[in-house]
Design brief:
Elements: E1 20-24, E2 27-30, H1 31-40, E3 43-44, E4 47-48, H2 54-75
Antiparallel strand pairs: 1-2, 3-4
This protein binds zinc ion.
Residues 3, 5-6, 8, 29-30, 33 line the site of zinc ion.
Length: 77
């Protein structure tokens, strides 16, 4: 079985646990390859980042910062 992204063999010697992910039931990938692909495709899940209008992107940024701060505050108490 081969990685969806780099097309090399999925199993490598001395591979740490959690290095593989399932894309769908018939597709597997190295976790590092998948993460690289998602970043270079500018995708978050099924959302194309470059399809988000700039105003919405700014609002999303604020929401993310607020959410991260909120979780940091909750976890520090
Ligand atoms: Zn790979």
């Amino acid at each position: 079985m081969r990685c969806t992204f780099c097309e090399e063999k999925l199993l490598r010697p001395n591979m740490p646990p959690g290095s593989l992910i399932i894309i769908d039931p018939n597709e597997y990938a190295h976790k590092s390859c998948a993460e690289q692909a998602w970043v270079s495709r500018r995708m978050f899940g099924s959302v194309k980042m470059n399809s988000i209008p700039s105003n919405d992107l700014f609002e999303l940024k604020q929401l993310l910062i607020n959410e991260i701060n909120l979780r940091d505050n909750l976890s520090s108490h």
